[in-house]
Amino acid sequence: MTTRLTHNQQSILKWLEKLDSPISAQNLYVQLRSSHQRLGLATVYRSLDVLKLRGLVQSRTAINGESLYSLVEQHQHYVTCLQCRESIRVYSCPVCELEAELAQSLSFKIYYHTFEFFGLCTSCQLQVPQSVLLKPEKPVPFY
């Protein structure tokens, strides 16, 4: 049996549909309040958590540690500069085929995935000494 969405959850979904980029829960709360919707910040966070569990909303973590939310249908990936924190949207996704394979082989219901690279944009590379930009000779182990 599927539970219906609450009025607040529906309001949040409708608001996310209007946006073309991910938004933090706090900024979403401010925008909803400015449009005269009566709900608290805790309600926004709880609603976003429920919407994520229902597979309707996805989140990614910004460099400052804050979660950014968007609709799953928006399927967005980024390269993010570690210095100026600018995120540039990437429109192709090599992970989609892998996602389909994993879903089938593991019988796993996948709602969304994240795919993000971190580094320095062209502008910030010019501001950082060349010695800092050199990659280590040995790859750093990934755990």
Structure characterization notes:
- By secondary structure, the protein is an alpha+beta fold.
- It has 2 domains: 1-74, Winged helix-like DNA-binding domain superfamily/Winged helix DNA-binding domain (Arc Repressor Mutant, subunit A); 75-129, Ferric-uptake regulator, C-terminal dimerisarion domain (Dna Ligase, domain 1), CATH 3.30.1490.190.
- The protein is 39% helix and 17% strand.
- The protein is built from 6 helices and 6 strands; from the N terminus they run H-E-H-H-E-E-E-E-H-E-H-H.
- The chain has a 3-stranded antiparallel beta sheet with strand order 1-3-2.
- Helix 2 packs across helix 3 (41-53).
- The model has no long low-confidence stretch (mean pLDDT 86).
Residue-averaged pLDDT: 86
- Biggest sheet descriptor: 3 strands, antiparallel
Instruction: Summarize the helix and strand pattern as letters.
Output: HEHHEEEEHEHH
- The CATH architecture of the largest domain would be Orthogonal Bundle
CATH superfamily of the largest domain: Winged helix-like DNA-binding domain superfamily/Winged helix DNA-binding domain
| Total discrete domains | 2
CA-to-CA gap between the ends? 39 Å
Number of helices: 6
Quick one: CATH class of the largest domain?
Answer: Mainly Alpha
Q: Report Rg.
A: 18 Å
Share of helix, binned: 25-40%
Major beta sheet, strand line-up: 1-3-2
CATH fold-level name of the largest domain:
Arc Repressor Mutant, subunit A
Task: Describe the SSE topology.
Blueprint: H1 7-18, E1 23-24, H2 25-34, H3 41-53, E2 57-61, E3 67-71, E4 77-81, E5 87-90, H4 95-105, E6 116-119, H5 122-127, H6 130-133
Parallel strand pairs: 4-6
Antiparallel strand pairs: 1-3, 2-3, 4-5
Helix pairs in contact: 1-3, 2-3
